[in-house]
Amino acid sequence: MAEIENRPTNFIRTIIDADLASGKHQQTHTRFPPEPNGFLHIGHAKSICLNFGIAQDYKGLCNLRFDDTNPEKEDINYVKSIQEDVSWLGFKWDGDICYSSNYFEQLHGYAVELIEKGLAYVCFLSPDQAREYRGTLTEPGKNSPYRDTPVEENLALFEKMRKGEFKEGECVLRAKIDMASSFMVLRDPIIYRIRFAHHHQTGDKWCIYPMYDFTHCISDALEGITHSLCTLEFQDNRRLYDWVLDNISIGCHPQQIEFSRLNLEYTVMSKRKLNDLVVNGHVEGWDDPRMPTIAGLRRRGYTPASIREFCKRIGITKQDNMVEMGMLEACIRDDLNENAPRAMAVLDPIKVVIENFEDAKVEQLVAPNHPSDESMGTRELPFTKELYIEREDFRVEANKKFKRLVLGKEVRLRNAYVIKAERFDEDAQGNITTLYCSYDADTLGKNPSDGRKVKGVIHWVSATHCVEAQVRQYDRLFSVPNPAAAEDFTQTLNPESLVIINQAKLEPSLAQAVAEQGFQFERMGYYCRDSKATELVFNQTVGLRDSWAKIENA
User: Fold this and answer.
1) Residue 481: exposed, middle, or buried by beta-carbon count in 10 A (0-12, 13-18, 19+)?
2) Is 281 left (phi over 0), alpha (psi -120 to 50) or beta?
3) CB 530 within 8 A of CB 307
4) Where is motif 'KMSKS' region found (predicted)?
5) Catalytic annotation on 271?
6) How many C-beta atoms surround the C-beta of residue 332 within 10 A?
7) According to the annotation, is 422 in a ligand binding site?
8) Residues 6 or more apart from 82 whose CB is under 8 A from it?
9) Among 433, 436, 444, 344, which residue's Cα sits nearest to residue 391?
10) What is the phi-psi region of residue 225: left when phi exceeds 0, alpha when psi lies from -120 to 50, beta otherwise?
């Protein structure tokens, strides 16, 4: 657990420090309150790290609460996936999981209290009429003709709503605040509506459901939340948050504090847009490795530590900005560079025959699993007469800048010998099919004895001992930095976001890789074994370098 003295500073923590110092609160109590209507994405990870991080650093509490007031869009599978994501990121919630639906009876009671105080009424305006009465940003709204219905009649009408005696959309319960307010959210907002929908927690007990803005503040108060942290789009809603709590008989009034949401280049953060990608088949599912969901990032090979580090680096401010994808990729690259074992994989193979190596001989070479961490141990690499190297690592002719294998010249095989390209075969189209080489048997782990210098190093696998796998190369899901700004964001999808390589040649140790385990494929990038495929499939996590930085700065 982080020490308070070493915690990151931001304006929210400054507020908390002052509240604790003044005695306003003896302990912090935060909450992470997702709606179970989709998978969590990297933007939610920022909120998770903030809320749970504050609880850790201040030795306070943090609840996991599902704001489940919209049963038509919610699903128990989303509930389960959110729990898994929070746990996978390394956080534990305090006590039992909370649901806003746990408070439906109390919420109903507070709605009745508002009616009794003359602060809520049943309204029969149609949705179109309600929009007309609401006014605009420059013009005040008009009072509903039902606004002055007597209290006793409103109580009876609300009870009929509860009993299911009205149709969906026939009427709603509205708070009576101010139709002339400059804040649209205060123009008699709806606080209850009729929905004949099965709820994943309460079944068919209710046919009226409270609105989010009415539910959220009361749920916070019932749970004793001290600081209710949310993103900037809820800034105006804070006025309704405070109004509800100020006008009901409840003993706790949490402080709502807003911070900027995460906007990440080359992706979208709208649950609606992400759902469109899934429903319309643009991706394979919510956990497609191209998706910015926590499940997708996990399947792609991102680690909890890398996502926590990313959230730490971007910080907490009130300033909206667009974060470069390269910052997220740098976090996983730094993590895996230090912690991922090395392995060799040839993605575009060309066969190499070592002509002066014995035909049936198999020499087991020892290679470190990490070049700077001996504790990771070693592995054996079978070296045989026939090998595979990357097609791009050989050229018939090349200038001095090409440090790989050239006809008539030498290169070192990683963790093995120096070889020399002697000749090659090609097919009718001019594609090289086989490369014939010789090897210097006295160069294992040392330079040539005659002092000649061999500068290049390339990777390889044994042609007779390698395992075949599918390798999925991933790129940015969208081709423009801000796809959400496009008229149709799906028109900016990157057609090269997924390239599938079949029959890649991998060193035999990779056959034992476990799902989600990250490796550095030497000279190629970072990869992990796919968690859903039954066959041997590896997903590219990130390249060794930020190739996009060069493109964008060109």
Assistant:
1) middle
2) left
3) no
4) 268-272
5) yes
6) 24
7) no
8) 34, 36, 39, 40, 64, 66
9) 433
10) beta
- Please identify which of the residues 142, 147, 261, 351 carries the catalytic annotation: 261
State how beta strands 322-323 and 263-264 pair: parallel
- For residue range 1-47, list pLDDT tens digits in order: 334 445 668 999 999 999 999 999 999 999 999 999 999 999 999 99
261 annotated ligand-binding residue: yes
Cα gap 64→35, rounded to integer Å: 11
Query: Would the annotation count 212 as a binding residue?
Result: yes
- 276 phi, psi to nearest 5 deg: -60, -40
Inter-CA distances, 267 with 271, 485, 511, Å: 12, 11, 33
| CATH 2.30.29.30 assigned to 342-466 | no
Pair 221, 245: CB distance under 8 Å: yes
Residue 536, classified by CB atoms within 10 Å of its CB into exposed (0-12), middle (13-18) or buried (19+), is middle
Catalytic residue (one of 13, 35, 298, 329): 35
Alpha-carbon distance of 521 to 543, in angstroms, equals: 10
270-273: Cβ within 8 A, 24+ apart: 270/484, 271/37, 271/38, 271/41, 273/484, 273/489
Q: What is the DSSP secondary-structure string of 238-307?
A: HHHHHHHHHTS--S--PEEEEEPPPEETTS---HHHHHHHHHTTSSSSTT-TTS-BHHHHHHHT--HHHH
Cα separations in angstroms, 442 against 417, 436, 511: 8, 19, 31
Which is catalytic among the residues 271, 299, 333, 476?
271
Cβ atoms of residues 256 and 286 within 8 Å: no
Cβ-contact 254, 220 below 8 angstroms: yes
Element of type H or E holding 15: helix 11-22
Instruction: Enumerate the domain spans of the chain.
Output: 27-259, 342-466
Between CA 464 and CA 466 the distance in angstroms is 6
**Closest to 530 (Cα-Cα) out of 541, 543, 519, 539:** 539
270 is in an annotated binding site: yes
DSSP 426: E
Which amino acid is present at 128?
A: D
Q: pLDDT for 91-140, tens place per residue?
A: 999 999 999 999 999 999 999 999 999 999 999 999 999 999 999 999 99
CATH number of 27-259: 3.40.50.620
DSSP assignments along 181-239, one per residue? -SSGGGSS-EEEEE----BTTTBTS-SEEE-HHHHHHHHHHHTT-SEEEEEGGGTTHHH
pLDDT confidence tier of residue 547, bands split at 50, 70 and 90: low
Q: Say what the alpha-carbon torsion angle 68, 69, 73, 76 is, to the nearest 10 degrees.
A: 30
pTM: 0.94
- Indicate the residue type of 503: Q
Stretch (H or E) spanning 373: none
To the question of whether residue 35 is assigned a binding role by annotation, the answer is: yes
Q: CA-CA distance, 516 to 255, in Å (whole number)?
A: 40
370 labelled ligand-binding: no
Segment holding 465, helix H or strand E: none
